[in-house]
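Researcher: I've got a protein sequence and the SMILES for adenosine-5'-triphosphate. Could you write out the 3D structure of the bound complex as structure tokens? I'd like something to compare against our soaking experiments later this week.
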Amino acid sequence: MSDGASNHQDLNEVIRQHSEALAAQLHSQRESLFPPDASKQMRKFMSGEAAALLGVNDSYLRKLHLDGKGPSPELTPGNRRLYSAHDIQALRELLEKTARKPGDYLPGRREGDHLQIIGVMNFKGGSGKTTTSAHLAQRLALLGYRVLAIDLDPQASLTALHGVQPEFDLEDGGTLYDAIRYDDPEPIRSVIRPTYIPNLDLIPGNLELMEFEHDTPRALSQGNAGLFFFRVREALAQVDEDYDVVVIDCPPQLGFLTMSALSASTGVLVTIHPEMLDVMSMSQFLRMTADLMDVIAESGADMSHDWMRYVLTRYEPSDAPQNRIVAFLRTMYGDTVLNAPMLKSTAISDAGLTKQTLYEVERSAFTRSTYDRAVESLNAVNDEIADLIQKTWGRS
Ligand SMILES: Nc1ncnc2c1ncn2[C@@H]1O[C@H](COP(=O)(O)OP(=O)(O)OP(=O)(O)O)[C@@H](O)[C@H]1O
Ligand SMILES: [Mg+2]
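Model: Sure. Here is the predicted complex with adenosine-5'-triphosphate in place.
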């Protein structure tokens, strides 16, 4: 072919070639980072961290170890005790047996408590939905809740964060789409997979989720969509008993997937990056959401929910314009803005670059103060949400 001919290549061919080249590069990059048989692992926890997660003193944990009770931690050359996430879970189960109050160590549902389904949303791209969802899901799992994380975003960032490569590991389906499609849906259990964190299961996402956006108008026009906005809720009902909390990372648009997640949610978290442009687009997001929910409510759906909260993301306390916006939001929305903001931190974005959450990276990889400040801010956000969950179950 002459040069002239290659200049006239069809756009679809060019894009396909670029896609294939990129996929191959990503694949080889991953092979070098993670050999095919290596899977992601959760780091181990220092005894102090393990004690804090369990809500006991480190000296008590040490005593259990010396008395030979519970799992034996790994000992470092300096004789410090390291606990795996599995050890922590085993300790939870042990401590719960002799707890003063039931649920001191296993904080999940009891008789009569309903499943918490938390939808993390905002149609503004980059407002911190995935970062919020991943840290929330992992923290709740480490605290002993049985958690199911769902990636509802075709971009699949939450999936990649959990060591599943959407382009390679999900060639034959395996996303929530399989369980919510109109045509011959699969049982939701077939798309749930365990993760390397005890108590945390994942339903990954990939581009196939987009099909739901295309199928729904067709199904609606043929009159067989049923109540499309209940597809997610109905699929989750199949595994209601298996979990305490479901965390759904929504895509940055108000499509049928987001509407279906919203209708399933018992708690809604709206992420807000406190900058003027983001807040302006949020106003549209809220209006459109309300309009769409009106339509759904008119068809008889119950729009009641347990709670809705705004969470400030990538917040920089030293930034005066951001502070003005935060003050304005707090005045306007009062208690519906979580007290704890998620601080902007290079520790969080750097961890993201290696497809990890801050809970997965080693503290030694960062300047201590940077790491500690970021972890404290994430814990504060997540623990406030855990409190909301407990309140919903009538405890505090
Ligand atoms: N607290 C933070 N500090 C520093 N960087 C952050 C923080 N939170 C999120 N980021 C970074 O900002 C970017 C966008 O965050 P994230 O992917 O969570 O947003 P999102 O709302 O899920 O985006 P999308 O709409 O594309 O799904 C990511 O690169 C992430 O690493
Ligand atoms: Mg995202």
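Model: Residues 129-130, 153, 157, 249 surround magnesium ion (ligand 2) (CB under 6 Å). The mean pLDDT is 91.
Researcher: Great, I'll pass this along to the crystallography team.
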